[in-house]
Amino acid sequence: MAIDLEARLHPTVHKAISALQGGDKLRWLTCFTASAKLFDNGKRRGFQQFSRDNVGIMHFTGIEHIDSDGRGLRGRLHIGDNEEVTAYFKFRIDSTEMCSRLDVSRMEGDRHLPLQGDG
User: Fold this and answer.
1) How confident is the model over 100-118, as pLDDT tens digits?
2) 11-113: which CATH topology?
3) Entry pTM
4) What is the separation of C-alpha 47 from the centre of its chain, rounded to a whole number of angstroms?
């Protein structure tokens, strides 16, 4: 699913989101450091497992907001089994221009909730 975000997203975030949209696990992983961390609503989760289980299934169907620094976005996210949620992804970029941390959450109004699991 093509969503043109190149002009507004940080280049590494754009590459990662493009890989997520295309279900390209290898390209997704090349955007992250070997020790990348994932936090789902503040709770540490396994980044590799998240990538293995979700890239190829999850994809944004619409973007509602992009943070001014181009490193965070909120939008409608297809998470499988015909389910969509409003989700927020925030990428932390290190000095080598790779993502060292990804924070994700599901949003209901102004509340942030776990994207997956019990949080």
Assistant:
1) 999 999 988 888 888 876 5
2) Nuclear Transport Factor 2; Chain: A, (3.10.450)
3) 0.89
4) 11
